[in-house]
Amino acid sequence: MIEYLLMGALVLLLVVCLLQFMLLKRSSNSEAFQLTARLDGFEQAQQRTETLVRDEMARNREEWNQTGREQRQELADAFKGLSQNLSGLAEKAAERL
């Protein structure tokens, strides 16, 4: 009984393989060209996207550098002002003594 089922499965497998082969052979070259054209379109879209992402990352990096530079300058100015205030207070304290 199992032998008959295995033989039937094998025959069905061969039929499926034969049908697949016939379908592949029957498909025209125009489908292959259409697929190639679509793949080329996808590749170009990927390249455009990659370029845009790379440019955006470069702009973001420049923005962060500029922001960091401005913050460091602001902090330096604040410390300079604090230093001047402390110097003035030290001079006044020295005068009182």
TrEMBL record:
The chain crosses the membrane at residues 6-24. It comes from the Bacteria. Keywords: Membrane, Transmembrane, Transmembrane helix. This is DNA recombination protein RmuC. It comes from Aromatoleum anaerobium.
